[in-house]
Amino acid sequence: QLLERELRHAQARGELFLEFQPICTLPGGRPVCLEALSRWQHAEFGLVGPEVFIPIAEECGLITSLGEWALQEALGVAARWRAAGFRELRLAVNVSPLQLMQPHFVEMVAAELERAGVPASALELEVTEGIDLRGRLQISQSVEGLRALGVGLSLDDFGTGFASLSRLNDLPLQVVKIDRVFVADLTGTEDPARSRYVRTLIAAMVAVAATLRLKLVAEGVETPEQGRELLALGCTQAQGFLFAPSVPEEELLAVLSALN
Ligand code: G
Ligand code: G
Ligand code: MN
Ligand code: NA
């Protein structure tokens, strides 16, 4: 189809770029990590979002090279913010489960870290369980290899995919990210039963995360009220428009100094 054909040329044409969004402490709003988010600026279609082109890339086999590009590009930017003095600021990069299926994925990650001069401990890979990761040998080997390398693993969009609370102990995770649909319903719903339910759900996630020694990040936090609710529930990190939208590298310094 048309988008697929155009996506095949996007990389070579330089139409892909990255934006970065801070993940901050709750309370305090101190940035601890920057998540790299891919963007596609097409000459005719305009800005195409990753929720559109990532699934296309996954279907047509472009995700491997797109994912490699995103990692390489993001590590280059991270090397620059580290050189500018932000050494404690980690980098989070989204990876498709299909990338974890690649036999040489871990070697690729190690080579890109080496090339950028960024330590493995400064990198977190975010994976969304859009497919069931269980029982896939290559995926468990990749995940184990990343752990051995010292790269962190985050479970993205938690609560919406295949992953259940009982699964959190099966992957060597450091971080779980609560999907923004739950955060939105904390305060944004007219239905008190729904907001009570979402509160209970988040409290349960906080309890499980504490037991498993996982960091919990709430996504899509837009208002101070949501921030207060999440803090009261025991959530200690958050990401969202409350702190900053995603911005290109050129605007990072301004965003970081506004947050500090
Ligand atoms: O930033 P935005 O809300 O448009 O991102 C939408 C979704 O696309 C997010 O869930 C994010 O995890 C995913 N995404 C963004 N960039 C990448 C990428 O480089 N690779 C993969 N696999 N997913 C990405
Ligand atoms: O990996 P993930 O899909 O969670 O990536 C975050 C996505 O959420 C990005 O596409 C980003 O543009 C979007 N986003 C970031 N902050 C907010 C927010 O506060 N509210 C909403 N609705 N979307 C957000
Ligand atoms: Mn993500
Ligand atoms: Na997400």
UniProtKB/TrEMBL annotation:
Q: Which UniProt keywords apply?
A: Membrane, Transmembrane, Transmembrane helix
Q: Does the keyword Membrane apply?
A: yes
> Has keyword Transmembrane?
yes
Residue ranges annotated for the EAL domain, each copy included: 1-260
Q: What is this protein called?
A: GGDEF-domain containing protein
Question: What are the top taxonomic ranks of the organism?
Answer: Bacteria, Thermotogati, Deinococcota, Deinococci, Deinococcales
- Residue span relative to the full protein: 383 to 642 of 652
